[in-house]
Amino acid sequence: MTENGSFLRRAALLCAAFFATLCAGADDYRLQTLAEGLEHPWGVAVISDREVLVTERVGRLRRVIDGVLQTQPISGVPEVHFAGQGGLSDIVLHPQFSSNRLVYLSYAAVDANHPKLTTLEVFRARLAQDSLIDGEVIFRATPSRKAPAHFGAKLMFLADGTLLVTSGDGFNHRERAQTLDNHYGKVLRINDDGSVPSDNPFVDTRGALPEIYSYGHRNLQGLATSADGTIIYQHEHGPKGGDELNILAPGNNYGWPAITYGIDYSGAVISPFTERKGMQQPIKYWVPSIAPSAMALYRGQLFPQWTGSLFITALVPGDVRRLSLVGRAVVAEEILFQSLGRTRNVIGAPDGSLLLVTDGADGRLIRVTRALPPPPKTVSAQILRK
Amino acid sequence: MLKRLVWFGQRLVWFGLSLLILTSFYTAQTSTTNLYWLASIGMPVDSGVVRATLLADWLGMNIHGEVPLSALLGVTLLLAFAVTRVVTIWWVVESRYIYALAGAAGSAVLIFCMPLALSDMELIAGARSLLGKLYLIAAGGVAGYFFGSQLTRQSE
C-alpha cells in the first residue's frame, strides 16, 4: 500500500513536472540583448535591477547600467593570466554587499615564484564608484599547475556566510583529486576574509588541507543552493561524456577519476568503474557531454512554471537546460534557448528575469523576460490557457 | 610493374605492422598507467578488468579518440621514415638502427609537441610522467627497428 502510494505520488509529481514543462512555451518569453561585444564574458553579479557586473576572461570587469554597457572597465582588478581556459573568471557579491560593498573575484594568476606556472586565486575588494579598492588576495590554490586549464573558479556564498570556491583538477593532475594534500579537484570553503571555518570537514585530518569541503571533482563550474539553502547543487565537466550534477555535502568524495561515466579525450578508458562504496553518485549525468558552464536555481515570480527549476548553461552544443526537481531527484529536462549557441552563465535577477551570458570573443549579456502578461497563478488555469 | 607493386605492397605491410606495434604499445601503456593507479587506491582491478580495458583502450584510442591515435602515429611514422629514407641515400647505416632511431625520434617529437599545441595539456594520459615519455619513445624505437629489420632482411 505504501509502495503504491509512493508510486502514485511520484507519478503525480512527474505529471506536474511534465505539464509545467508544456506551459513554459517559447512564446512565453523574449530575449533582450543588454550588452554585446563582451570579450569572453564569464561571471555575472547582479547589484540591482538597474546594475549588473560582468567579468571578461581577458581581465576586465564591466558594468552594465540600465541595459547600457559602460565603456570604461572598473579599475583595480588584479592582473590575471589570460591563456587557455584561464583568466578572470567568477564574481560574487558579499551577502552584505549593500552595506560593505565587498566583491569577490576568482581568476587564474601567474605563480610569482614560478612564472611558468599558474594558479587559482580569489581576490576581495570594495567596489567604489568605478574602481575596486582595498583589494587583497584571500585564497591561492596549491600547488600551481603548468596547463592553464580546469581551474573551476566558481564562487558562491552559503547561507552561513562562508564562501565556496571550486578548484578544478588542472587537467594533468586528475589522480590528485582523490588526495587531500592539494587543491586539485576540490570544493573549498573559506570565511569571507579567507580564513578557514573551524567546522570544515577536514580541519582535524592530518595531512589534509583545511579548506577542503568535498573532493573527487573534475572541472566544476556550477554551484547553486535550494531555496531554503539546505541543498547545495554542483555540476562539473566530465571528460568525453560524464558531465555530472551532484548534491554536495561536507567531506564527501565524488569519485573522479576513480569512478566516471566518461572516457578520455584520447578515447581511452579513464576508469572502468562507475560506482564504488564511499564515492557519491551524481543525481544526473550526461553522455555525451553538454559542457555545463554555470547554474542557477530559479526563485523568481516572472515565470511561475520555472520556480524551483535548475537552469544550467551548456557550451556544447550550446543551449540552456532546465531541470525540474522533486526533492533531490531530477524528474525532467527541457532544452531552451538553442539559438544562442554556447552559453557561459546564467543568474536570476531581482525582477524575476533570467540573465544569460553567451561565450566567446563577442559575448552577449541577454535578459530573458516575459513576452506575455504573467499567467494566472494555478497550474490548471495555465493548462486551460494553452 | 608487378615487381614494383610487390615492392610497394611489402613496405605497406611492414609499415602497417610497425604502426600496429606502436599503437599497441601506446594503448597498453595508457591502460597500464590508469589501472595501476586504480589498483593503488583499492579499486577492484582483476584480470577480467585488465583484459577488457586493454581491448577497450586499443579500440577506443585508435578509433574513438578526438584524433585517432592510429592516424596520429601513422602520420608520425610516415614522416619519420620518409626523412630516414632520404638520409640513407647519403649516410649508409644499417636500416634497423636508423629506422629505430627515426621511430624513437618521431615518437619523441609527437609526445613533446602535442602539449605545446594543446596549452600544455597531455592528451595521452600515459605520457604525463617522464618514465611514461621514455617508454613511448622506446616504443617508437621498437616500431622503427621492426620496419628497418624487414628492409635489412630483404636486402640480405
Provide the fold topology.
The complex is a heterodimer of chains A (about 375) and B (about 160).
Chain A: H1 2-23, E1 29-38, E2 41-46, E3 51-56, E4 60-65, E5 68-69, E6 88-93, H2 97-100, E7 102-111, E8 114-127, E9 132-140, E10 152-157, E11 163-167, E12 186-190, E13 212-215, E14 219-225, E15 232-237, E16 243-248, E17 284-286, E18 292-297, E19 310-314, E20 319-326, E21 329-336, E22 343-348, E23 354-358, E24 363-370, H3 379-385
Antiparallel strand pairs in A: 1-24, 2-3, 3-4, 4-5, 6-7, 7-8, 8-9, 10-11, 11-12, 12-13, 14-15, 15-16, 16-17, 18-19, 19-20, 20-21, 22-23, 23-24
Chain B: H1 2-40, H2 47-64, H3 69-90, H4 95-117, H5 130-155
Helix pairs in contact in B: 1-2, 1-3, 1-5, 3-4, 4-5
Q: Could you give the order of the helices and strands of chain A?
A: HEEEEEEHEEEEEEEEEEEEEEEEEEH
Q: Which regions of chain B have little confidence, pLDDT < 50, spanning 5+ residues?
A: none
Oligomer: heterodimer
Helix and strand content put the structural class of chain B at mainly alpha
Q: Measure the end-to-end span of chain B.
A: 22 Å
Q: How far apart are the termini of chain A?
A: 36 Å
Largest interface: A-B, 25 and 33 residues
Proportion of residues in extended strands of chain A: 35-45%
Which key phrases capture this entry?
heterodimer, A: 386 residues, mainly beta, four-stranded antiparallel sheet, 3 helices, disordered C terminus, B: 156 residues, mainly alpha, 5 helices, elongated
Care to describe what's here?
The complex is a heterodimer of chains A (386) and B (156). Chain A is mainly beta. Chain A is built from three helices and 24 strands. In chain A, strands 1-24-23-22 form a four-stranded antiparallel β-sheet, with no helix packed on it. Chain A starts with a helix and ends with a helix. Chain B has 156 residues and is mainly α. Chain B has one domain (2-155). Chain B has five helices and no strands. In chain B, helix 3 packs across helix 4 and helix 4 packs antiparallel against helix 5. The relative contact order of chain B is 0.16. The model of chain B has no long low-confidence stretch (mean pLDDT 94). The chains are: A mainly beta (386), B mainly alpha (156).
